[in-house]
Amino acid sequence: MTQFTLLTRCLPVALFCISALVLAGSMFPGGYDWRTQVISKLTSPHDNPGFYVLPSFGIIFAMLAVLPFAGYVAQRLDAFSTSIAALTRATFVLSFTSTMLAMMTQIIFTAPRSKLHNLLAYASVGFFVVAMLSCCVCGLKDRFGSPAGKTALPRALTSWWFGLTLFPIISLAFIAFVLALGQLVGISWAEDLRQSFRGTIFWRLAFWEWFAIAVAFAFFLVSILLLPISTGRSNQPTGSLLLPSSFRNIAVLAIPFKLENSPLQIMKTRRQPSLKTSLIGWWRQVRDSSPHLWISIVFKKKWSAIFPK
Q1: Residue-number span of the structural domain to which 61 is assigned
Q2: Burial of 115 (0-12, 13-18, 19+ CB in 10 A)
Q3: Where are the alpha helices (DSSP H) in 28-81?
Q4: Which of 48, 137, 235, 289 is disulfide-compatible with 52, CB 3.0–4.6 A?
Q5: pLDDT tens-digit map of 117-171
Q6: pTM confidence score
Q7: How many structural domains does the chain have?
Q8: Which has the closest alpha carbon to 221: 178, 269, 157, 167?
Q9: What is the per-residue DSSP string for 257-291?
């Protein structure tokens, strides 16, 4: 899977499918407040009986569209650590698969509160966080395990990875620590802070769900734009999924279809573009390729026409 295909095919399709949540929110009975109501209410047959199918299948198709991202990232991290690259691929695939299964269970089981749905949703977040941390570990190995000035990964990429991964974790850990001090230990200032915190959107799970979607999209975009096309030779054959056989049928889209012909010498001599330049280039690619993409969808061409190898 090439960088161009991810930027101009997979990511726009995923965004288009996720936008079904906005449409479902506008049709939600009684109005939908994203600050207080969780996303599961939009996909619940009990809370949104008229339009729950639209956001549910939108999320499922979005996960299918970003599934090749797992193989794309792992293939480029394999030069740093084969085991970490395999863990990254596996946890990304498990995260996307858990999200799809969570949506399917909510469609099948029409109970107001499905424990299986919640378990799969929490598992999806956990797997995604592990995958993000694995990328950060590879960034650390590249930064401190390589000679000075000869790192294979751009410093901007490592900084974005750490910022997008550690900021939510540290924020949630601080909130949990303050809650424990106020509710369990009984410290006065912590209890006052906890009571004042209860009236804000940061107390609501719904806010953190939408925040997680924004963080995930930023992680996708930054990784695709700033990851070098090649980070060196890998000991693993091209197309190796590095997953147990029971997961290979589920994760077939995560297999890297083709390794681009860009040797390490080109990467060393070519200066990595800035994030601003990469974003402008990505927008131009999406703009130029969008007519072909949407025409392919409207006329229901084959899957290979929309996602070429």
Answers
A1: 3-306
A2: exposed
A3: 53-66, 68-77
A4: 48
A5: 889 999 999 999 999 999 999 998 888 876 655 678 888 999 999 999 999 899 8
A6: 0.71
A7: 1
A8: 157
A9: ----S--HHHHHHSPPPPHHHHHHHHHHHHHHHHH
